[in-house]
Design a protein that fits this description.
about 130 residues, mainly beta, four-stranded antiparallel β-sheet, two-stranded antiparallel ribbon, about 45% strand, YmaF family protein, YmaF
Length: about 130
């Protein structure tokens, strides 16, 4: 099955041999896409917490959907954790738009290996970052 996708790729500008590119999808199967900001603070474990903030992966607008998300936490106590998962379904806002709930556990890291719980809700949808 082929699904038409439109978008553009941006070079990171790094001279590193392992550089990366970012793919920005603007439509999926003819439907415009949108993203959501998300941020928060993890639970306190091993005497500290971590902050995180990023954008969800794009998803089609106007249809039932969820978003993938992925980010690193802040550097605290000499380490970071990874956060990734899939949001819950869209929840309509009274004035238009919608948000998503998300929750999970970070990867395990630290000099005393541990993970942190996190949860929250995304911001309203935006068509561009």
């Amino acid at each position: 099955m082929k699904i038409p996708v439109t978008g553009f790729v941006m070079d990171s500008g790094d001279d590193d041999a392992h550089h990366s590119h970012k793919l920005f999808i603007t439509s999926w199967n003819g439907t415009p896409v949108h993203v959501h900001a998300f941020s928060g603070i993890t639970s306190i474990e091993d005497g500290h917490s971590h902050e995180y903030a990023s954008w969800t992966a794009p998803a089609p607008t106007g249809v039932p959907h969820v978003h993938g998300y992925h980010t690193e936490t802040s550097l605290n106590q000499g380490h970071i954790h990874m956060i990734q998962g899939t949001t819950g379904p869209a929840i309509d806002l009274p004035g238009g738009g919608h948000y998503h709930l998300f929750e999970g556990y970070t990867t395990i890291n630290g000099s005393h290996p541990h993970s942190h719980a996190y949860s929250g809700r995304t911001g309203n949808e935006v068509s561009r970052v």
